[in-house]
Amino acid sequence: MSLLKKDKEIAVPGEVLTKGEEYSAGQGTYKDKDEIVASRLGLFDVRGKIISILPLSGKYVPLRGDVIIGEVVDISFSGWRVETNSAYSAMLGVKDATSEFISKGADLTEFYNLGDHIATKIINVTSQKLIDLTMKGPGLRKLIGGRIISVNPYKVPRIIGKMGSMVNLIKDHTKCIITVGQNGLIWINGEPKNELIAVNTIRKIEREAHTSGLTDKIKEYLEKSYKNEKA
Amino acid sequence: MKRPDGRNVDELRKIEAKAGIIKRADGSASFKIGNTIAYAAVYGPRNLYPRFLQNPEKGILRCNYNMMPFSGSGERIRPGSSRRSKEISLVTEKALLPVINLGEFPNSVIDIFIEFPQTDAGSRCAGICAASIALAEAGVPMKELVAAVAVGIVNGEVVVDLSKEEEDMDGAVDIPIAITTKSNNISLLQMDGMIKQEDIKKAIELGKKASQKIFELQKKAIKDKYNV
After folding, report:
1. Which residue of A has its CA nearest to B147?
2. Interface touch A10/B226, C-beta < 8 Å
3. How many angstroms separate the CA atoms of A72 and A82, rounded?
4. Is A101 or B64 the better-scoring residue by pLDDT?
5. Rounded CA separation A112/A19 (Å)
6. pLDDT for A34-76, tens place per residue?
């Protein structure tokens, strides 16, 4: 049988998406006899013969390879415990923390202290959701100054844009340094009034993430924000 | 037979459902049925402490049912948990558990807080309906929604969605029942009063029909939030 929903239509858990054996069940769906049913709230999506649900809301789920922004919440002998804005905290071991040599018994607070925010990368997630982090990689560092805002983690791809087009647009206009974490935390550093414009722009993207032609709209919005300022 | 408020036997009280009403919660909903108002807020999945509660196989669900002090019919309700609210918290949790997939969140917890600023009757059912919308809105993976409604006997007749007035009548039977909306399974069934075998079968059938109506409203509430 054919599809019971249009592309990008909202589906609620328990709604039947299609009947028959023609399609197979992807992410966010499950199979019940010959029906494919939504298992979470999201937008209906068909790619080839696979039906999936693109989530609209929810907590961040840690994935290997994601660059996230975390806060140091505890220091132990062997590393730092980092809060990840998900249900689980992560571990940053001494050997992954920096390229410098850290001697035995050194004061670890000299590298990252409690309350510090870091841009870091997830190198492993176990089935029990134990997360390992690393600081080795481009752009991974301690974040000093600036401000951090939190957005819906499922809107992050939209904020980054294709090949970073959206975030580069904001960077070019506001002259701010912006680091977007996959976990929905965004670090912005620049002139205070530019930071504010960047924050407002990101909020606008978050609100209108589902609309098309967003990059042009945001470009217009940024130009307008700066024109108003001069006037 | 006419009911005290003039409804038909299979007619529900007026229902209003809304999703996303509490800004800081991960998911939230309000569910009004007649004079009963339920607000549900979902937090999580999040860290679970104390540690001994953690389950490495799957996450846990915690429900909290609370009637506000001024919510009853006249008398002030003593704040805090009571024997009654603890029981209802537990049955709410058990009613929602079968549809939620907690296997994706080991060692963590999903908290649901259900508050009642005003109650008439059928508060546990309203609470379950609100919690179910809130869970979906929080992006928790779940097989289906849960809809709950009270059925029972008033003046010897099987009716749906009893009001407080009907509940207090002589010989009234009150059966709160929660139905999973797709597979039509029962996840909560309690009873207050005495009932004949054929009547309870009739009552459950009526409850299943009514829960489908509630499901439509729950769906609408969630979709409305995203379609503005």
Report:
1. A14
2. yes
3. 4
4. B64
5. 54
6. 899 999 999 999 998 999 999 999 999 999 999 999 999 999 9
| pLDDT above 80 for A221 | yes
* Residues 24-43 of chain B whose Cβ lies under 8 A from any Cβ of chain A: 26-27
Confidence of residue A231 (pLDDT cuts 50, 70, 90): low
Tokens of A92: 């940053």
Structure-token pair, residue A223: 């130009």
Cβ A58–B107 below 8 Å, yes or no? no
Of the pLDDT bands very low, low, confident and very high (cuts 50, 70, 90), residue A211 is: confident
| Min distance A199 CA to chain B CA atoms (Å) | 18
Residues of chain B found within 8 Å of residue A12, distances taken between Cβ atoms: 136, 145, 218-219, 222-223
Q: Which fold has domain A147-230?
A: Ribosomal Protein S8; Chain: A, domain 1 (3.30.1370)
Does the beta-carbon distance from B219 to A12 stay under 8 Å?
yes
What integer pLDDT is reported at residue A104 of this predicted model? 82
Helices A214-230, A192-207: inter-axial angle, 10-degree rounding: 150
DSSP secondary structure of A179-219? EE-TTSEEEEES-HHHHHHHHHHHHHHHHTTTSSSHHHHHH
Residue of B nearest to A55 (CA): B139
Full set of structural domains in chain B with CATH:
15-218 (3.30.230.70)
The residue among A6, A8, A41, A71 with the most chain B CBs within 10 A of its CB, best to mutate, is A41
Give the mean model confidence (pLDDT) for residues B49-62.
94
Are the folds of A10-55 and A67-143 the same?
Answer: yes
CATH for A67-143, among 2.40.10.10, 2.40.50.140, 3.40.50.2000, 3.10.20.90? Answer: 2.40.50.140
Q: How many residues appear in chain B?
A: 228
